[in-house]
């Protein structure tokens, strides 16, 4: 395990190129185990209170577990996420947009992996282009192992953040490329060749917000659990989103060399 501020030049360059960086054995495993323990207590308690199979299924996925994401157990991982955000976005520049726990149950026969970009449809619903509804950096902590493919792994399309930025830069409006991306999401036309990330508790996933991503099928016996923090540079929240979409590293103080 290393200090979050010690991302080296090679790691930063890999992140610049791919928009994705997997840091192996980077987070304190004791903290990861503590969050997973609380998550399981929360999930099992609420599942038992489910009124029907659909309710239990929705709860089992446990997309939001606010009593866990706001609890003291999460504090060490939140600090590490913010330290990483500070190393990349710049010290004192980090705004936490969201903390989210997601648990993917073993897949049924109808499972179809789908990719998306988190903020696209939300951006399309805005009335003006000078708002920024999203985030810039996703920091993920696997709570359970996914060391083989199809274990509820996060899959990503490395390098496509640059292509997407170029699309925005060449368009006079944001709506046209946003609508094109939204149609691509709806039709599930792939962006490049998606790669499944093989992870274990203690690893940390960093992705640029413009990276297409999704969740692979879970052929394992148990839940595939992850904790995510979505972070943004404070100025992006107030100034608007155009430059965050057409210039991939505009507000990333830690990525400015050659950015």
Automatic annotation (TrEMBL):
GO terms for molecular function: 2-oxoglutarate-dependent dioxygenase activity. Keywords: Dioxygenase, Oxidoreductase. InterPro entries: Phytyl_CoA_dOase-like. It comes from the Bacteria. It holds the Pfam family PhyH. This is Phytanoyl-CoA dioxygenase PhyH. It comes from Sulfitobacter guttiformis.
């Amino acid at each position: 395990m290393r200090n979050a501020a010690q991302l080296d030049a090679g790691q930063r360059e890999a992140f610049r190129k791919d928009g994705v960086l997997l840091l192996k054995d980077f987070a304190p495993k004791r903290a990861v185990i503590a969050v997973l323990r609380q998550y399981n207590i929360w999930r099992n308690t609420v599942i038992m209170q489910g009124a029907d199979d659909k309710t239990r299924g929705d709860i089992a996925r446990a997309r939001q577990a606010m009593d866990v994401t706001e609890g003291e157990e999460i504090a060490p991982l939140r600090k590490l996420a913010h330290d990483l955000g500070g190393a990349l976005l710049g010290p004192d520049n980090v705004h936490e947009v969201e903390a989210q726990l997601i648990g993917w149950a073993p897949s049924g026969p109808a499972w179809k992996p789908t990719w998306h970009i988190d903020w696209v449809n939300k951006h399309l619903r805005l009335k003006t282009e000078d708002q920024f509804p999203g985030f810039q950096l996703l920091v993920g902590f696997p709570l359970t192992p996914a060391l083989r493919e199809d274990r509820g792994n996060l899959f990503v399309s490395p390098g496509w953040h640059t292509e997407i930025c170029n699309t925005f830069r060449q368009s006079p409006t944001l709506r046209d490329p946003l609508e094109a991306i939204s149609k691509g999401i709806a039709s599930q036309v792939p962006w490049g060749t998606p790669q499944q990330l093989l992870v274990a508790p203690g690893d940390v996933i960093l992705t640029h917000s413009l990276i297409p991503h999704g969740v692979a099928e879970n052929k394992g016996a148990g839940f595939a659990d992850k904790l995510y923090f979505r972070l943004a540079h404070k100025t992006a929240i107030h100034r608007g989103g155009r430059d965050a979409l057409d210039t991939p590293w505009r507000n990333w103080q830690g990525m400015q060399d050659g950015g």
